[in-house]
Amino acid sequence: MAMKFQKPKRNTPIATLIRNYVNKKSGKVSVSREEIKWRFDHLDWKDQKKILIAFLDSGISDREWAYSKMLDNWDESFLPKVKELWETYHEYKCSWSVIRYFPLNYIKEHIEEFTDERDYYFICLRLAKDKDYAIDRSKLSKKDYLAMLWHTGRTISDDDASDTLFGIIHDCCFADTFMSRLERVGEGRYDNVITPANFREVNLAIYYLLKLEKDNVVQQFEQWNEQVEDAINDSPEFKSIDRNDFFHDYEYDRRRVEIANLYAFQALDEKYKLPSDPTIEQMRQTMEQNQEWARMQREQPPHNHYQISEIDYDNTDYDGEDPLPF
Question: Of 46, 62, 229, 286, which has the most beta carbons under 10 Å away?
C-alpha cells in the first residue's frame, strides 16, 4: 500500500521553532529552519528580528539567507553583529548590507575591502550624491557610469555621452557571441537583421542617455544604426544565411550577431578602435572558422554530437531601468 503524503504541521508556535533552531541538540534544527523560512515573510517584526539574529549566529548558508532578508528588514541593532561578520569573513552577501546601511565614514575608510566587480557602483550610489565626491570612472563599466550620473543627479556633455555610447558598442563587437543578450529582435526595418540596437548593453545605455536628456545623441546613434542595418541587409554574409542550415536557434542567433559585430565595427569611427582590435579580414576569418565548426558538428553522428546548452536569449522588450540587486 502506498504511503499517504503528510503535510507538515504549521501550528508550532514561532517561539518554539526559534528555540529548537537555536538549540543545536534539540534534534529539530533542520525542521525548524525550514519552517521558519517558510513563515518568515508573514511574521511580526519582533519575531523576524529574533530570527535574523539567530541566523547570523549560525553557519554560512543560514547567514547568507539572513543577509538577503536584512536588506528589506534592516535594524540598527544588527550593525555590531554584521560589522563583526564582515570584518571576519568578508562574505559577498554581507557586503550588501554594509554598503547600503553602514555610515558613510565607515564605507570611505574601508572602501578598498569591497572587491567584487560591482561593489564600487553601489558604494558610489551613496557617495556620489555629494556633488563634491569625485567618481572614479575607471572602476565603473561604461553603462554603469551613465547609470551613476543619472541616479546621483549629475550631467554629461554631448561629446562624452556619444563617446561613452560608441565605446559600449565597440565592446559589444568583441563580447562572447554565446553570451550576447538581445532585445527587440525583429522590430527593425528588415526581418531577421540584428544590429547594435538589439544588444541589451546598448539599450541600457540609451535608456540612461534619454534619462540624462541626451536625445540628440540618441538620434545620432539611430541614424548610424540605420546605416549599419542597411549594410548588414545588403551584405553577402547575411544574404547567405538559411535558417534551415542551423541545428539550434542559438546557432542562428550567433551567426547574425557575428554579422552585426562585423558591420558595426566596420562603421565605427576610427577614434573608437583600439590597436589591439582585429582587422575586418581577421573578423571574417573567425566567422568562417565558426561556420565551418558548426557545419562539422551538424554532420557528425548523433552519438558524437558535441552538445552545447542552448542559451535563453532575452528577446523581450526592455521597459525599465537596470535593476539593482537590493
Answer: 229
